[in-house]
Amino acid sequence: MWNAVTRFFGLVPPVPKSTDEHREDFASAESANFAEESEPASASRSTPVAAETRLRHIDALRAIAALLVLWVHVGDAFVHLDGPNALAGAASQEFISSLNIGRIGVVMFFLISGFVIPFSLHPQKPAPVRSFLVQRFFRIFPAYWLSIPLGALTGYWIRGIPFTASDFLVNLTLLQDLFGVPPAEGLYWTLFTELMFYALCAVLASMHSLGKPRLLLLIASTFGAIYALAMLSLWVRHPLLETTLAFDFLNLSIMLCGTLCRQLLIEAGATSDRWARFGILGLLAGYLIVLPAITIPLAGFWGNAQVAYALGLLLFLVGERWVRIRTRLTDWLGAISYSIYLFHPVVFMATLWLLQRQPQGSWWRTQHLAVYLLANLALTLLLAQAVHRWVEQPGIRLGRRCAKALQRRQNREQIHSATA
């Protein structure tokens, strides 16, 4: 009975392939990696095949997500520059904030990570998990480390708000939420969620289970059920989990939805598992329809987190499946989207501080909200491009070199053990 259950969910390790089969898989993966058109490569049943080429329409979704987050943060900060009704555009910003477009953008980022990250693991290459973690480290941390002093300066120090040396050092680890330390920027919690997802991917890859849709579906559904149960317990005033932890489970489930969408719905040749396809459709229906339908009568439509999650999922599905945007502008914005996300608080906090030092009611403080949005967008894009070129790209190259060194070392160890 247990064997049947474990086989159903893909927990039994796959039958080892012959050397020729591995060569065929590797050759097909390499051809997909260097294809001119950035289409997803088909995933095998046991492990996802990585595709290193950029998916241009996914870059467009990254750009949209980053701009949504920038819009709500800048708008919410500047609309109260001289009081809530002093600026033209206040009513439209209230609508945007009530729609929770910042959370919509974050949900899109999580789905994109699920769609892309597991497929960057190369199971055919030596030391795949270690190489993956090394490359992810150098992708995330260099720009993140640069944002910490700039975030502390613009969000704390110039305003006379304490941000101690110990706070700074803990922030370097990205574990500030675990230690109850204030973040240099409030959006760092999303990066910690990314780290949890990387760890989950690494564990599943080490178990040869990252490309098994039924197991991923079981995990995603379990995480979603934990979140729903936690929210139900909160509603009946007997909370089982902290709200933050409950949303962590929801976010990881959403990220796995991105992975499953690619495996089961988008890559038609990835699997013929009809039941797994029905399962992911049911899970998507739960997030798109069922949870919003349950929560809207209880919490209303505006500001409802479930509505924002549903809209983020809907935008992702539409942008990935039916309305694929591929332009040079979105290519560029998508490429620098991580720096846009990280450094837009630095720009708008510094700009806001400067304007707050101007006389109340002056020309500088009474412009239409769109003026402040466009000015902050322009400054953020300039800074993001500089960080992308001088920090992100060197970090990515260094990560690849370190990963290749690990792979060469693993190759040497395998040759040595085989000849010993």
In words, what does this structure look like?
This protein is mainly α. It has one domain (55-419). 72% of the residues lie in helices and 0% in strands. The chain has 16 helices and no strands. It has helices at residues 2-8, 19-33, 56-78, 90-99, 101-116, 128-155, 165-173, 176-179, 188-206, 213-235, 243-266, 274-299, 305-322, 328-335, 337-356, 369-419. Mean pLDDT is 86; it is low at 1-52.
Which characteristics define this entry?
single chain; 420 residues; mainly alpha; 16 helices; 72% helix; disordered N terminus
Global outline: globular
Overall structural class, as computed from helix and strand content, comes to mainly alpha
- Total count of domains: 1
Mean of residue pLDDT values: 86
Low-pLDDT stretches are 1-52
**DSSP helix count?**
16
N- to C-terminal distance: 42 Å
Secondary-structure element string: HHHHHHHHHHHHHHHH
What summary fits the major beta sheet?
A: none
- The count of DSSP E runs of length 2 or more, i.e. the number of strands, is 0
Gyration radius (Cα, Å) is 23 Å
Residues in helices, as a percent range: over 70%
Q: Note the beta-strand portion.
A: under 5%
